[in-house]
Fold each of these.
Amino acid sequence: MRIFLSFLAVRSAGLVKLTVPFRISEEIRRNTQKHPINTQKHPKQKHPKQKHPKQYAEIPYQKHPFHFVSSCASFNLPFSSAALFLLIIILQASCYTLPPETSNKYPLLRLQEKYSIYLDATWTTKDAAALLKVFEAVSPELLNPQFSSWNISDDALKNGIKIEFKDKSKHVTISRDALPTEESQEIPSPEKRLFHAVVQFITENGTNRSAIKLIMQKRYGIDVPSHAALPPRTKNNTAKGYSDFSNEDLMLIMSVLEEFPQALHKTPQLKYIVRRIDRIDDEDRGISSAMISRGYITFAESIFLRDHYHRHDTRKIIAHEKAHFLWWHVFDHQLKKDWAKLGGWQQDLTSESGWSTTQERSAFVTEYAYTENPDEDMAESIGFYFVYPDRLRSCCPEKYEFIHNRIMLIYGKRWSPSNPM
Ligand SMILES: [Zn+2]
């Protein structure tokens, strides 16, 4: 291709030669002659205004092209200059069409144009591409036109990000360990930590409620209605029995939902979540539950009021309830059948849950998983897989492998064109 373009350049230069040879040769001649004169007399200091017009006027106008003679060859100078000039333009133009250079610049330009994000020299092209991927995945509607400059630091930062305001502009520092690495490619979501950092940025450290609710809706398909707008569920269970999630609650829920592979983020049957106030006379006090047929999850208010140590348990409960929707609406018959076999489950009409197991309690991660059914066993095991993986691995290594290989890796490889992360 380039050879062909070079040939074109040479042919084009031939045409140039016919039309503009004299102007080029004249200019070259002037440039060649004026330097010796200037250096001899330092004319700029003595006659700065008169010198150049006089000199040019004294040079006779030559209509013969100037020839440059080297020790190797003799060229027609205007011809070769024009050819060289065109050759450079054509070769440069052809270079700009090469995919590697275009892809190198694309993340930087896209971040600047769409998100007003400017990266400093600490960012590699690969890092920039990862950042762009996360921004594009969160939601196209979440534009942040305010200028911000971003750098990478080796320091460990809370949530992988630090947002500062200096000189009336926003400065963002990303912790290097929040960026995906080569080793993390096998994990279903290698950009997970970077995702959390970007969500902190977009939601202004978890304070912008409309941004939080938009991410909940766009990424996980879950609405967060105001408790006052909730329809009564039972005669005694009116809107008074519910409260609104705090922003912190929603940030926690999002971080757990993000743990699931991208292909499992949205479950169409899970439409919204509610937060129920625990009452002393409430027989369901402190209990969260997935309302599978009605399309929502009820979270007990008390699970969000625990201290930091017990936040792990809260995370486990959130993952558990989400897993019920997967069991009933996503996992296929074979997967559920294999899971039941792994747990020694068999249907038992004499049992309160309708199921019993042939295995010992030690083969289950909790008492609840042991006494209920394959569905609860799966929900408990998935909750532990995310929050206490070592405990699941030690009690039930085959179940850990089952969840890892049959669910997380399989769904982690499924690509969704609407949400490529
Ligand atoms: Zn359950």
Amino acid sequence: MGEIKSFCARSYLVAKLCTYCGRRLSLFGGRIDSKVKDYIVPLSRGGEESSENIVASCKECQALKGEYLNFALLPLLLNRPRLIDDIRHYLREVRQVMGVRSSVMDLPG
Ligand SMILES: [Zn+2]
């Protein structure tokens, strides 16, 4: 478990692409492509302040995702890739509905 933890922490630090939309992350603050921490399970919904629950995200994805959590996947809370995949699909739909085209990228899977 400790190894997984340090891997996740490191993966946030070294991440250059948004986990959700795949765009290149900017280290400058205040931009839609700024690199921010996103909690897979929002803290307001019981998510933990742990490296397993943190991914590198762009500011736009973080804002569009908000408090989103797919409750149908709650039994799979430890299945990080599955949750991330679900959030990617959710964000793709949100962007389609809102007409946000700036960063739509089709990620495999
Ligand atoms: Zn993004």
